[in-house]
Amino acid sequence: MEKTNFIFQKETYNAYDAQRIVFEAAKYKSEIILEDGNKRANAKSIIGLLSMKFLAGDEYGVSAEGVDAKQAAKGLAEFIANL
To answer: Is 38 exposed, middle or buried (CB count within 10 Å of its CB: 0-12, 13-18, 19+)?
Structure first.
């Protein structure tokens, strides 16, 4: 299992952002989980991501498990941090 963290930079978070994250996560074969300490969401689930309340300046974790876990965790963390 690979884990990494990122700081959410964007001032707002909406359904379009959640959709973009799902599309990016779908590029990887690994299972990817996003968490904020209280909530966990499957990065490939639009419903799960809509329940996340990303706030600018807060730190979030990405964990991935599977054949491309290292690339998935790092790649998705960078993608979300740069939304």
So the answer is: exposed
